[in-house]
Specification:
With about 80 residues, this protein is an alpha+beta fold. The protein has a domain of about 55 residues. The protein is built from five helices and three strands; from the N terminus they run H-H-E-H-H-E-E-H.
């Protein structure tokens, strides 16, 4: 059974599941169309919320799709 089918069987909204999707740094950069350095700067300045997975040099960052889109829409001029 696919993940989408399971969501529909439970009555959950697939669009909501997509908004809650967790992205890697690479996927976040692709979504925002920015480079590695810019994403790192925005994360470090706590302008974009992120989750740290692990500790030390082997740790990784993850981003929630909805958080990134909300931040992006807030930057509209």
């Amino acid at each position: 059974m696919s993940g989408v089918r399971a969501l529909r069987d439970d009555g959950d909204d697939p669009a909501l599941a997509r908004a809650e999707e967790i992205l890697t740094s690479r996927e976040a950069r692709k979504l925002l169309k920015i480079g590695k350095t810019k994403l790192h700067e925005l994360t470090r300045a706590q302008m974009i919320p992120a989750f740290r997975i692990g500790v030390g040099k082997t740790s990784a960052l993850r981003y929630r799709r909805n958080d990134l889109l909300q931040w992006l829409y807030g930057q509209r001029v």
